[in-house]
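Q: What would this chain look like folded?
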Amino acid sequence: MEIKEIISYFLNVESNILEISFRTIEDNDEVLRSDNIDFSVTEDYGFELVIESFDFFDEEFEDDEVVVEKVELDEEELIIFLNEYYTVNPHSLPNADFY
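A: My prediction, written as structure tokens:
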């Protein structure tokens, strides 16, 4: 089992849960695997996945607007982490779902 591509990810900063969708090399393009992983596990495996953003020119928002911050992750490192994580925890690999 090896991760082929990341389809999408979202790090919920409040709950520290990484919501991720991906494909393995065994999956075809009609298949998707989704998982929720406690993001603190990445540090246990020695990975620093968050990319620092120095975007000083963000749009200005009104005081009453809710802003959901999207945390950017290094996708290459994320794939390496997932490969290691599912090698150590093979029973945690989500089943392939057709979408």
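The helical segments are 40-44, 75-88.
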